[in-house]
Here is the input.
Amino acid sequence: MSAVGYPFSAIVGLADLRLALLLNAVSPAIGGVLVRGEKGTAKSTMVRALAALLPEVDVVAGCRFACDPAQPDPACPDGPHEASAPYETRRARLVELPVGATEDRLVGSLDLERALTEGVKAYEPGLLAAAHRGVLYVDEVNLLHDHLVDLLLDAAAMGICHVEREGVSVRHAARFLLVGTMNPEEGELRPQLLDRFGLTVEVRASRDPGERAEVVRRRLAYEADPAGFAARWREADEELARRIADARALLPRVELPDTELERIARVCAAFEVDGLRADLVTARAAIALAAWHGRDRVTADDVRQAALLALPHRRRRNPFDAPGLDPETLDEALGEPDPDPEPPAGGPGGQDGDRAEGSADHSADHSAEQGADHGAEQGAAPPPGPGAAEQAPVKPGEPFRARLLSVPGVGSGRAGRRSRAETSYGRTVRARRPVQPVTRLHLTGTLRAAAPHQVARGRAPGGGLVLRREDLREAVREGREGNLVLFVVDASGSMGARQRMRAVKGAVLSLLLDAYQRRDKVGLVTFRGSGAEIVLQPTSSVDVAAARLETLPTGGRTPLAAGLLTAHKVLYHEHLRDPRRRPLLVVVTDGRATHGPDPVGEARRAARLLAARRVAGVVVDCETGPVRLGLAQRLAADLGALALRLDELAADALAGLVRGIKDPRDSRRAA
Ligand SMILES: [Zn+2]
Here is the structure.
C-alpha cells in the first residue's frame, strides 16, 4: 500500500456517498454513514480519502486520548492536563475497526492483574480512543459481533467510551465520525442498528462504459505514480477541505424555517418511521446541506435531499423488505400542505386529470394483489411468470414463530442467539485458572484460591488479604452462538398436493425468519427428479434464501440419498471455511425415497454417513393422511436426529392467539 492516499476529488461517480460523507464532515452530529453495496466499488477508497479533507486538530502533546488543549477531557486517563500544557497540531485520524476485533481491542484493556496485585490502574487505550476526533471506519459492519456493535454504537451515541472490569473502571471521550459498509448479500443489519446510523447510501459500480473506463484510467495513473497523481489533485482536495471548514463555520447560523421543519415532519410521518430520530437526522442533514451550499437558510430542496439520505433504512418493516424510498410517496409528502381540504379549483375535471396520470399503475397493482390473494386462498396457480416452464411455483404459507431448535453441547462459535456457547460476555458459569492475562476476574474463585495460603504468607490478624498473581481466577461465561442451519427440502412429487407444499414452504419460511433473528447462516439444498441441487450456498443473507424458496419448483421423483449426500458435501466445505460454526441440519421430508436402483438403502447409508460426522439434526416429518408409513421417523433414527411433525414446529400451540400482543418480534408483521 502506498503512503500517498488516493485523492478524494479523483474518485469518479458515487455522488450520494460523496455528499453523505461531506455532510457528516460538516456536521458530525448527523451520526455517520452506512454504505450499502457490492464489493469492488471505490467505497473504501472514498472513506479513507475523506480523512485528509477534515480540518486538522490540536491535541495535548503526549495525551493518548487526543485531548483538545482548549477543552481537555476532565476524565482523561492521561490527565489532568495543565492549561499551559504543550500541544501539537495534526491531521484528523482514520481508524479502521477490523471485523475480527476483540472487545479489548475496541474499548481498550485494563490490566486487572496489576490493578489487584500492585494497585496500579494500567489502561491500554483501544480503537475508540484512537478514533476520537477522527473517523472510525468499519468495513463489513454487518459481520461484526452483536456485542461489539452494541459497544460501538453506545460509544458513538454518548461520545464516551466506558470500560469496566470487576469494579475497576475507566472512561474517556470518544467522539468520531462513524462510517460502516456492508454488502447486503451477506446479511442485513438488525433494524435497531440500521436506525443508529445517521445516513445510508446505496452504491453500485457505474454501468456507463465511459465512466468505468475513466475509473480504470485514474487507478492506473495513481498506481504508476502515486505522488504525481496526488499532486495533480491536490488543489481540488484543498478546495474541498476549505469548503468543509467554511461550512462548519456557517453551520451555527443556518436557520431552519418552520415551513421546512413541518415538511420534514410530514415526510417522516408519510414513511412511518419509528421514533423521532429520523426527523432529527433529516433536520441536521438539511441544515448541513444549506451550510455546504453557503446558504444560511434551509430550502425545500435541502429537505428532499436530506430525506433521501436519512430515511431509506428507517422504514423497513420486515427483514425481507429491501430498503428504499418510493419516489411518489416522497414527492407527495414533500409537496406544500393543502390548506383547503376541499378539491382545488378546476372541479372534477382537474381531479380526473390527476387520477388519469397514475391510473394505469394503480389498477395494475390492484389486480396483481387480487390475483395473489386468490392464489393464496384457494391454492390455485397464480398467473405463470416468465420462468414457469412446467408448473408455477407454490407460494409459501403464512409464517409462524418457530420453536427453538438448537445444537446440543457448548460451542465456541460467533455470537448469535441459537445454541449454548462459551463467550466473552453473558452469564458467568464457573471459574478457572486463566490461560491469558485476566480480563474477567472471578472474584469468589480468586478469594477461595488465596484463602488457604494466608497463614503461610504471613497475613497479620486484621490485615488485608495477601493476594498473589497465581491466585487469580477468570470467569468462564456462557452466552449463545449462531449456527449454520442447512435446510434439505424434499421438493418432489411425493410431497403431494400443492396445499401441502404450501404448508412445507411456510414452515421453512418460518424457520428462515427464526434464523435471521438468531443470526445464523443458512443454506438450502433441495432434491427432486433425478438429483439434488444446492439452491443456496451457506450465507447470512436470509432474504435471498426466502426469495429462492418462493420460486422453488416442485414435482418429480424423490432422490433422498442425493439430497443427504449433497448436504454432507456442503457441511464438509463449510467446516473447512469456518470450523467453529456448528451446523444444524434440518431435513424436511416425508421420508420417502423413490429414485435410483436401491433408493431406500442408499438413503439410509447417506444418513449414517452424516450421523458418523455427529451432525446435529432435525427431521421435519411431512407425512400426512390416515395411513402413515413412519419413514421420516426411521430416517431421524438413522441420522441420530430429532423428529418433529410439521405442526410441532410452532413455538407453542397458542402462538396464533397471542401473536402480535406478546411477542414484540411480530410487530414487523403489523404493517
Ligand atoms: Zn488527555
About this structure: Residues 63 and 79 are 8 Å apart (CA to CA). Residues 60, 63, 65, 67, 72-73, 76, 78-79, 81 surround zinc ion (CB under 6 Å).
